[in-house]
């Protein structure tokens, strides 16, 4: 199980990095997973960030 950001769907709102900066960051203006944190999909905050992503770009599992 992993967490990932689909950069084709993301439009760079920055909400994921704002909510969970330990797991999400921005790369070239788009959301990205902090290297080494791809296994954080079980974190409730990560799940909430995925649910609240306005473009549903965050995939879990
Ligand atoms: S919350 Fe969604 S749209 Fe916004 S930066 Fe993160 S992945 Fe992209």
Automatic annotation (TrEMBL):
Q: Where is the composition biased (Basic and acidic residues)?
A: 36-51
Q: Which SUPFAM superfamilies did the record assign?
A: 4Fe-4S ferredoxins (SSF54862)
- Among the Pfam families in the record, one is Fer4_13
* Coiled coil segments of this chain: none
Tell me the segments the record calls region Disordered: 36-61
Q: Which cofactors does this protein require? A: [3Fe-4S] cluster
| Keywords linked to the UniProt accession | 3Fe-4S, Electron transport, Iron, Iron-sulfur, Metal-binding, Transport
Entry function: Ferredoxins are iron-sulfur proteins that transfer electrons in a wide variety of metabolic reactions.
Q: Under what name is this protein listed?
A: Ferredoxin
Q: Which organism is it from?
A: Streptomyces asoensis
State the taxonomy lineage.
Bacteria, Bacillati, Actinomycetota, Actinomycetes, Kitasatosporales
